[in-house]
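Our preliminary data section would be incomplete without showing what the modeling component actually yields. Below, a chain of 106 amino acids is followed by its predicted structure, encoded as tokens that our downstream tools consume directly.
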Amino acid sequence: MSYRFMRMLVMFDLPTETGEDRRNYRLFRKALIKNGFFMLQESVYCRLLLTPSSEAVARNAISAARPPKGLVQLLCVTEKQFSRMTYLVGSQQTEAIDSDERIIVL
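Predicted structure:
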């Protein structure tokens, strides 16, 4: 059985009213980046999943890092669905290396 590449989208809305809330926001954002997520737009992060076990690992890492307050949502879509994303305003930014290829020449 072949596993299709998937994308995990993390969407979050966290409070930033108190100093502790801002600290929790920063720690959650840093945990996302440490676990291989990159920012699509503010409060929306994405990661390419190459194997079925990587989905469970990513889900557990996000659950462990989630702050006590706020809303955190996960959505997994296939690579084909993700590639059909339409940009209504603006354009795709290519600052991050975002590829499912095994060899990347820099």
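The longest strand covers residues 6-13. The helical segments are 19-34, 52-65, 79-83. Preliminary results of this kind motivate Aim 1 of the renewal.
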